[in-house]
Amino acid sequence: GGVACYGGTYSAGNAFISYADTLATLIKNKKGYSIPVENLGVRNETSVSVLAREGTLPILIDSFKIGAQPELLQVKVKGSKGDELNVLCGSDNPGLNTVEIDGIEGTLYGKTDANDYTKTSEFYFYREEAGDEHEVKANTVVNTYAMREYSNYVSILWIGDDGGYDSLDELFEQYSEFKKAHEGKRYLVIGKLDDADYNEYLTRCKEMFGDNFVDMRGLLLTYSQEYVNKGDKPVSDSDRKLLEQGIYPSFIIDKNGNLTTSTIDKIAEWIYLKIDEKGFIE
Fold first, then answer.
1. Which of 59, 95, 129, 248 has the fewest CB atoms within 10 Å, measured from its CB?
2. pLDDT by residue, tens only, the chain of 282 residues
3. Are 1 and 149 in contact (CB under 8 A)?
4. DSSP string of 242-280, one letter each residue
């Protein structure tokens, strides 16, 4: 087994590192052995699309015919509840390919929308090897690589900051499905960072997940205040004002909306402590 880190922009990391990278190093240094730690974060990917790759809310494909020979076939996909998906909104989509459709292995390709790089406008399937022709029925599940290969890994889910839901209730419906799918398994849920309906969000997460939940917003704001109070490094007046308003200062999230490298390292440390506390990686 290993650790599978599912999520959107914040899981994907910045241009230099992701928390999965640092987590792998921490496990090796503190435990004395290495295990796979997969960064399955994709920038801008919605919550339903993350859960589609992970398998809780699987990708469904419309009816189409797979020919005997490998060829690129345009297909229609949707989420398990009919949601629009933006898997493959970027060139890299870990945990998706190779896919299996009715036992036939292949690659699912996507074309990013020309007017919105956070969306996928078209999908295509390409079978790996020649074989018998096959008629795929409507609403057939697409079995992703993650569903087949990471099912016995520790699952870390970080969604909520890239859309994919219209209300807090809808997000918690998704969370509930994830919890049901992972009953008796090793998992953590990382809290979203934005402050929309945060008090209600926090209360409901604690009720639903108990100590499998990590309040990342709370940890980051507390860490930021402690950083300022220490006075070891200069902090700008603008950062102090942001923090007073409950907004992340620039040493946490930069002007481009990316977590800073030092913040990512701190996040990995908190996650390591939690999975170690729960005995997930003995």
1. 129
2. 899 999 999 999 999 999 999 999 999 999 999 999 999 999 999 999 999 999 999 999 999 999 999 999 999 999 998 999 999 876 668 999 999 999 999 999 999 888 998 899 999 999 999 999 999 999 999 999 999 999 999 999 999 999 999 999 999 999 999 999 999 999 999 999 999 999 999 999 999 999 999 999 999 999 999 999 988 888 999 999 999 999 999 999 998 999 999 999 999 999 999 999 999 997
3. no
4. HHHTT---TTTB-TTSPBPHHHHHHHHHHHHHHHHHTTT
Torsion angle of the four alpha carbons 166, 169, 170, 172, in this order, in degrees rounded to the nearest 10: 130
pTM, two decimals, is 0.95
Phi, psi of 120 (to 5 degrees): -115, 125
The three-class DSSP label of residue 38 is strand
How far apart CA 99 and CA 97 sit, in angstroms, is 5
